[in-house]
Structure formats: C-alpha cells, structure tokens
Amino acid sequence: MADGKGALLAAGRRRVRTRASSPGVPRSTDGAAPLAVLAAVFTVAQLVLVRPVLGLGWDEIVYVSQVTSHHPAAFFSAPRARGVSLLVAPVASWSESTALLRVYLALLSGLGLYLALHAWRGLFPTRVLVTAGAFFASLWVTLFYGPQAMPNQWVALGALLAVGCFLRYHADHSARGALWGVAAGAVLMALMRPTDAVWVTIPLLVLALAGRHLRLLGALAAGLAVGAAEWVAEAYAWYGGLGERLAEASRIQGGLGLQIAVDDQLRSLGGRGLCRPCTGAMPHPVVTLWWFALPLLAVLALVVAVRARRALRTVLPLACATTAALPYLFMIGYAAPRFLQPAYALLAIPVADALWHLVRTPAGTWRPVVASLAALALAGHLAVQLTVLTRTVDRNTDNRRDWARTAGELHRLGVRPPCLITGHEAIPVAYYAGCSSGGTGGNNENTTVAEILGTADRVPVATLVGPGGTPPGYARTWPSHTIGDLRVRVAPAPGQDAPEGAATDGPE
Q1: Are 189 and 227 in contact (CB under 8 A)?
Q2: 43-55 pLDDT per residue, tens
Q3: Which one of 327, 367, 411, 420 is least enclosed by Cβ atoms within 10 Å?
Q4: What is the pTM (predicted TM-score) of this model?
Q5: Long-range contacts of 355-363 (CB under 8 A, 24+ apart)
C-alpha cells in the first residue's frame, strides 16, 4: 500500500515537472521579473525624455475632445476609431490636465508592453524577449508616442499579444487562457484601427482556416467583431454603410491604391510626425541604417528558425509584420513613422533572436568579435534614436506652444468661449482657446458658410489665414489682425457691422 502511494506521488511530481518544462507551457513566473524591469524603464524613459508638459497634438486633440467636458468636440473623420477616446476617458472625462494624461498613458503603455511580451514566454528565451522589448521601446517613435493619445502603438501591442497567444495555444491546446489573449489582442487592435487589425491578422486567419483550428478562428473573429462593432455601427448610422465609410476614409487618405511610399517612410524617420506631402531631403544615412538592417536580420532569423525546426514561431510574426506594413508602404501616398509601429513590434522578436544567434555559438559561448561589433552598433543605434527623439520633442513642444500663444491672443481680441474658429489649423488652435472648430471644405469639412455666419450673430467667430493664404469670401470684410505669422479675421461683435475698410490693412 505504501509503495502504491509513493508511486502515485512520484508520478504526480513527474507530471508537474514535465508540464513545467514544456516549451509550450512556461511557468507563470518564468522571465516575469526582467520583463517588469524593462517595462518600468520604458515608462520612466517616456516621462523623462518626452516630458508630461508636452501639449496635445492635432490628432490627440480630436481623440481627447470626444470625451472631455472642458472643450467642444472636434470633427471626427471617417478613418478614425473611438478606441483612443475610450482609452483616455478615465482621465480626460474629468480632468483637463495634460500632464496627468501623459503620466497615465506612460504607465499604461509600460503595462501594455509587459503584458504583450509576457504572452511570448516559453516561445523564446527571456533574453530574446527582453532584447526585443528593449529594441522596440528604444525607437524614438515608440518613446515619443507612448505617452500620447494616439492609436498605432496600441495596435502594435495588441498585435504582439494576439500573435504570441496564438502561437501558445497552437503549441498547447490546453492553454485556454491563450485563447482569451488572442481575442483581447484582436479587440484592442480593432478598437484602435479596425482596418489595421484586419491587415495584421490576415496570416493568423489563414493559418487558423488552413489548420481547421476552430477555436483560434473563433477567438480571432470574435475579437475583431467586438472591437470593430462601434466603428461599423457608426458607418451605417452616419455614412450610409460600411462600404461608404471605407470609401470616404480612402478619399481622406488620398485614395488607397498602388502607391510607393517607401521613400516617404524613410524621410519620416528623421522625426517628421506626418509627411504629407512628403518632400525634402532624406535624413542622414546613419538615421535610416537600422531600417535597412531589419529585413536582413529577419531573413537570418528565419534561417535560424528553420534549422532549429521551430519555424512557425518565427514565420508567423514575420508574416504579420509584412501584412501590417504592406498598406503603408505600397498603398498610401504619404507617411508617418507611427504607421509602421505594429510591424516594428512584430519584427522585434525574430530580430532579437537573430542577434543572439550572431553573438553566441550554439554551445552558448560568446563570439567576442561579433559581440563587440553588435554592442557598438546597438550603442550607435540608441544614440541616433535619442538624438532624433530630442529634436522631435523640442520641435513639437514649440509648435504646441505656438497654438497656445495664438489662443491667448485670440482671447485678447475678444474671441472667448463660447466661440468658433475656422481656417488654418483651426482644430488645434480652437482646442487651446476653448472654442469649437469648423471647416467648409477639405478633410475636416463639418459646416457651411451659412452656419458660420449664423454663429457669428450669436458668439465670437474668427478665421485664421496661414502664411501666403487668402481669407475666405465670407470673412473678407471682417477686421484683420496679425498673430505671429498668421492673419486673423474676427467677425464683428453680434449686432455690429464690419467697419468700412477693415480688410485694407495690407496684403494677406
């Protein structure tokens, strides 16, 4: 009897050891501490290098204004989704403190990075995951947008989570929690940018269908459906249908189709938040060198994975990175570096695996010469990223202070809430001034001339004219003022007529 009991206990211990050592089912604590340290460093770096005092940018204003009670909501165009607005609502709905919002988003993005990398435990060694996370987190675009109310970084983290959990469940069907991770990653991506979520998940859907993995397919489909439900509902409520909204989104983005934007993306790597139109000289080659190294390291990672007979866990993130990048490299006529964040996040893990293969032999010993060269290259890469980040932060800080100064001057001219601002950069200036914004044409058209004139009979209205521009016809007789390099036309106070000759104080 004693022997039988001992045998049962020994068998149980063997099962526990076998399960714990299985590559598809890592222990819950494996690699958690290094990933947590990395996430903490990433969070602190955002707060130190980007600084919470950085004012809200144009796109941020659109997203934040949807949920705040302190400012009128800006026009919300067809390509946008409500995910970012939901993300910032816990803070922006009751506080107008930009610093508090920055801290909140930095903490949240640090947590998101930890959870996304945590999903890959057991698929790659901890050192590979930490290196991958450090590479992605050290990119200037990741640090810059981490504490900002923008969608692309959250698509990137959702993609990492979904692909990692997909591979975990594919390796071990008893890992039911991984199914929830797949669904959660798909929900996050679709909430932020539904079309991006579809592009990222194409390889996952194909693999799930080909292998008849119905649970994986169901988790992906359910996640995408839940995340995109609100966006699709808006399409039918406001645009006449899903096809009509997609067509309007395509129009706003310049018409989607075969267009080469590789050179545009290269130009944007120098710190340009939006490259539209994307003209000017290319950045210095040292700024773009890492971009060309990525595909080479990805190929090396694939070769290593095939030789080690673990191709799927490398091929799948590479495939998802490719489909995520495809529309922004070959189907759109402009560029922004944040568009490729999902691709960078997915490439990071195979690339990190390739780097470790270069610096260490299969026996685990270091290759001193290669390791030294790799360390120098990574140090140079980090220096370049920090330099670009510093210049980008400084430039954006100045631009946003200019908007705030313009808003202050408008207040001095009597344009105070409730009020309406139209014309050049109306959306950001109006937000800083506490006014509504309006446009009678272009991608942000949300009003008519008759509505603007009717509003001017009730509240202050101003039209901004950029350098070299001309005022719209309805504002030509309004008194003209100069604020920096802007010309400002302010409608006469309700009940007053425009003074004769008000528009004759100089060329526009």
Answers
A1: yes
A2: 999 999 999 999 9
A3: 367
A4: 0.92
A5: 355/131, 355/297, 356/125, 356/127, 356/128, 356/131, 357/300, 357/301, 357/304, 358/300
